[in-house]
From TrEMBL:
SUPFAM superfamilies: Lysozyme-like. The lineage of its organism: Bacteria, Pseudomonadati, Myxococcota, Myxococcia, Myxococcales. GO terms for molecular function: pentosyltransferase activity. Residues 426-578 form the Glycosyl transferase family domain. Keywords: Cell inner membrane, Cell membrane, Cell shape, Cell wall biogenesis/degradation, Glycosyltransferase, Membrane, Peptidoglycan synthesis, Transferase, Transmembrane, Transmembrane helix. Gene3D superfamilies: Biosynthetic peptidoglycan transglycosylase-like. It comes from Cystobacter fuscus. Pfam families: Transgly (PF00912). It comes from the Bacteria. GO terms for cellular component: membrane; peptidoglycan-based cell wall. This is Monofunctional biosynthetic peptidoglycan transglycosylase. One of its GO terms (biological process) is peptidoglycan biosynthetic process. InterPro entries: Glyco_trans_51 (IPR001264), Lysozyme-like_dom_sf (IPR023346), PBP_transglycosylase (IPR036950), Pep_trsgly (IPR011812).
């Protein structure tokens, strides 16, 4: 017979029942907390607190209380200024976690706020986001209490998860996902803010701010960020790929130092170059100061370097004030740079095929720009470029062959054309000393009035075309040296890469050749019509005479067709000028007279002189060319 069982003690019974009672109480409490009454009370406090900061908001029906006391609301939408547009901010979930120590002490304090699945629509040019910031900075009505973290407690930590930013300029660009953690951290009673962020595609950023007597102090560090995706937010005209960006900024009251470095970046666009341009490397570092009460800021120094080894460098200084209409002034100085350093600073796709790195000498320059920020046409621009000239004692460079007779095959749409001899061995060749003076003056007045004084680039004319275009269309202009570089070495592709190559070749020509030799080569190789190269062929084709015998009006006509000689050959085929082109020729004659290149009598005679074209009057060809002109 088994012994009788001992009855359960009261202590064991309580130990068994207590967890059940606690669990039941927790379930009942959680059910009560998620009930309509508590939800209504929470919403009644949350909505006014949000609207006091953000303006009108839409708060969804989600309301959930977690087992650890967290409260989740959502979704939250902050409408933008456009009724038909998306909300400027949408937060799918807002989770609030209390501080347990404060809760056990009878106080309600928010320890952490987690914002999940956040979308920010900045709007066209950021207008929607700026409007939201202005609403947040506006004074709150006295009847609406400010939102707080609790009864005198510390500020809560804010965590953002899966944040996306959308920008609108030429199109819509979305950047994300981004995560961030922000918390307030006071040191010795001085309030401060610490923030860390994980950026899209990798990389991170850290921000530390403190409030001091001199103002805000702090640092911002950005490390190992994909450069292409970040720089693409500015919606440049080309695609940016790859690369790493690192940056750092330090603010101390009224001054700041900053640095930026990008390496391994590639640019892709058909207008830039047929192939990707890269890898690019550049950096910048500088110091700035400001006095907000005087509405004045000064860029004390900015050094921009290009190249893996920072071969090319530009020093920039400037000032700005906004006491009335905002004004600015900038000065940039290109340090002395050898041709070898200049070419090493650029990626291979921007380097000409010619061996310019073997050129002796260097170049340097300065640029100053000043004026009212909003009125481009009133900006004052001054630029200066110095290019060292080759000395007789210098060894021959890669462009020395241009100083002697040479053979040249012009580049056409079908490839290289027939071979031309540029020298006395060609009966159509005209040496510079034998070119008609009026022809030279007409071409220079029409194409490059400052040829004899500039060093390859006419910055005065260029600034006028860029800042004060007569028809409000920004365009560029090429000097004779630039045109010569293009005709001698480059294809006809219209890309920015070709313009960069052209600039380097222009510097090489200015360093290697005299002005007289450049002018002589120019007149004897440029295209003057379909398959017509050199002034000797042009004079014989258009007027049946030697170039040395061209009249003033004939010279003026030939100068006016240089921008597109194939297109304007129609006038020769047809045997007469249109009224529009007759006015162009007469206008150039007036410029020659006003500039002292021809006398008044010569001007009057040239206005009435005929143009005895000698290239035939094929009706079919004339009709085809006229259609092209129209």
């Amino acid at each position: 017979m088994p012994p009788p069982r001992r009855p359960l003690s009261k202590r064991l019974l309580v130990a068994c029942l207590l967890p059940v009672l606690l669990a039941g109480g927790a379930v009942a409490g959680k059910a009560w907390l998620e009930g309509d009454e508590v939800r209504a009370r929470v919403m009644a406090r949350a909505r006014p607190a949000l609207e006091s900061r953000l303006g009108p908001v839409r708060l969804g029906e989600e309301f959930h209380v977690g087992w650890t006391g967290t409260v989740t609301l959502g979704p939250l939408e902050v409408p933008g200024t456009r009724p038909e547009g998306p909300p400027v901010v949408r937060i799918e979930h807002i989770t609030v976690r209390p501080r347990w120590r404060a809760l056990l002490a009878g106080r309600i304090e928010v320890g952490r706020v987690v914002l999940s699945e956040v979308m920010i629509e900045a709007g066209p040019s950021g207008r929607e986001l700026r409007a939201l910031v202005q609403r947040m900075r506006a004074p709150r009505p006295a009847s609406v209490p400010a939102a707080s973290s609790g009864s005198g407690g510390a500020w809560p930590e804010v965590v953002v998860e899966d944040l996306h930013l959308a920008f609108e300029r030429r199109g819509r660009v979305e950047w994300g996902p981004l995560s961030a953690r922000v918390r307030r951290e006071d040191v010795d009673g001085i309030p401060g803010l610490e923030a860390k962020a994980g950026l899209p595609g990798g990389g991170h950023a850290e921000l530390s701010l403190r409030k001091a007597e001199s103002g805000i102090t702090g640092t911002l560090q950005v490390r190992e960020v994909p450069a292409g995706s970040v720089l693409s937010l500015a919606e440049p005209p080309w695609t940016m790929e790859g690369g790493i960006l690192e940056a750092e900024a330090r603010v101390d009251g009224r001054e700041a130092t900053f640095s930026l470095a990008v390496k391994g970046l590639a640019l892709r666009d058909a207008r830039l170059a047929p192939e990707p341009v890269g890898p690019l490397a550049f950096s910048a570092e500088g110091r700035a100061r400001w006095e907000l009460e005087r509405r004045h800021a000064k860029l004390e120094s900015l050094r921009v370097a290009v190249g893996e080894r920072r071969e090319a460098g530009v020093e920039v200084t400037g000032e700005a004030d906004w006491k009335q209409a905002p004004r600015f002034s900038l000065r940039a100085e290109l340090r002395p740079l050898t041709f070898e350093q200049a070419l090493a600073a650029l990626p291979p796709s921007l380097v000409p095929d010619q061996e310019l790195a073997k050129l002796e000498g260097h170049f340097q320059g300065t640029l100053t720009v000043a004026g009212p920020v909003a009125r481009r046409e009133e900006w004052e621009v001054k630029a200066k470029l110095d290019v060292s000239k080759r000395k007789a004692s210098d060894p021959p460079g890669p462009l020395a062959w241009l100083r002697a007779p040479f053979d040249y095959r012009p580049l056409t749409a079908e490839g290289r054309g027939r071979e031309l001899h540029i020298g006395p061995g060609n009966p159509r060749y005209v040496p510079s000393a034998e070119l008609p003076r009026v022809l030279v003056r007409a071409v220079l007045r029409s194409e490059d009035a400052a040829f004899w004084v500039h060093r390859g680039f006419d910055f005065d004319s260029l600034s006028t075309l860029l800042l004060k275009p007569p028809d409000d269309k920004v365009r560029g202009g090429s000097t004779l040296t630039q045109q010569l570089a293009k005709n001698l070495f480059l294809s006809r592709e219209k890309t920015y890469a070709r313009k960069v190559k052209e600039a380097y070749l222009t510097l090489g020509l200015e360093s290697s050749l005299s002005k007289e030799r450049m002018l002589e080569v120019y007149f004897n190789i440029i295209e003057w019509g379909p398959g017509i190269y050199g002034i000797g062929e042009a004079a014989r084709h258009y007027f049946g005479k030697d170039a040395r015998e061209l009249s003033i009006r004939e010279s003026a006509f030939l100068a006016t067709i240089i921008p597109n000689p194939v297109r304007y050959h129609v006038y020769c085929t047809r045997g007469e000028l249109s009224e529009v082109w007759k006015k162009n020729v007469d206008r150039l004659l007036g410029v020659l007279h006003e500039g002292g290149d021809i006398t008044f009598t010569e001007y009057q005679e040239a206005l009435d002189a005929p143009l005895p074209f000698a290239c035939g009057d094929s009706e079919a060809q004339a009709t085809e060319e006229q259609t092209s002109v129209e």
